[in-house]
Specification:
This protein is α+β, with helices and mostly antiparallel strands. The chain has two domains: 7-115, no CATH class; 130-223, no CATH class. It is built from five helices and 13 strands. The strands form three sheets. Strands 1, 2, 3, 4, 5 and 6 form a six-stranded antiparallel beta sheet that branches. The chain has a four-stranded antiparallel beta sheet with strand order 7-11-12-13. A three-stranded antiparallel beta sheet has the order 9-8-10. Strand 4 and strand 5 (80-89) form a beta hairpin. Helix 3 (130-140) packs across helix 4. 20% of the residues are buried.
Length: 225
């Protein structure tokens, strides 16, 4: 079960919360079972089908939650279900939402704040602007240690007009990259690979999108199944 997107948030490290405490917090905002007459509803749902009463799945110091939204187009129509997973790493102080859309992530964060009194949720702080760092990587032709740049990338000018150049499955010629950067464009949304295991796209807001495990990682998972 892979997360496809990572919207990252910080928590105190360590955050001394047990799965039992988390279960109590979420229970008051659990999605009601059965058929609802409401056109829209949302709440916490069980992460595992074989444990329908548990709203928290805990493993190795991490907790998995599921935000479930239901929508109907007509009062008697079947509900359309959308699940959004949340991973909480209490030991290292991370909360991750598996959402590509900012609107969906906002829904999940809103229910987290309602469910958990005084949730100590913070933003990710970095020493360098993400856009500046990504532009430096592109200019040097190398990502940070353990990461490589792939063949999808977007360059955009911050000036009025937002002139944009996109490369999709294309070799990133060093001379071309330098020319674009010299003209004032900055690197946005580079496709990258970590340790030949996982590919993804990084955004200026530090959201990680389009996560795909590569064959070497899939094979390792199959061998331990």
């Amino acid at each position: 079960m892979w997360f496809k997107n990572l919207q990252l948030h910080r928590l105190p490290a360590p955050w001394s919360v047990t799965p039992e405490q988390m279960q109590k917090w979420l229970a008051s905002h659990a999605l009601a079972p059965g058929h609802s007459v409401e056109m829209q509803s949302h709440g916490w749902a069980a992460p595992r089908d074989n444990a329908p009463d548990s709203l928290v799945y805990s493993l190795n110091g991490q907790m998995l939650l599921v935000f479930r939204a239901k929508n109907k187009l007509l009062p008697r129509a079947f509900s359309i279900r959308r699940d959004t997973r949340v991973c909480i790493n209490c030991r290292n102080g991370w909360l991750v939402i598996d959402a590509a859309s900012q609107a969906v992530a906002n829904e999940v964060r809103g229910l987290l704040v309602k469910s958990i009194d005084q949730l100590p949720l913070g933003t990710v702080r970095v020493a360098q602007s993400p856009v500046a760092a990504m532009t430096d990587w592109l200019l040097s032709g190398e990502g940070p240690a353990g990461f490589s740049l792939d063949q999808d990338i977007e360059l955009r000018s911050p000036a009025e007009g937002n002139a944009t150049v996109r490369y999709v499955g294309h070799t990133l010629d060093a001379d071309d990259m330098r020319r674009h950067i010299k003209a004032g464009k900055q690197c946005m949304r580079p496709a990258m690979t970590w340790n030949d295991r996982i590919s993804f796209v990084l955004t200026p807001s530090l959201t990680i999108k389009r996560i795909v495990p590569l064959d070497v990682l899939k094979e390792a998972g199959d061998s331990t199944a």
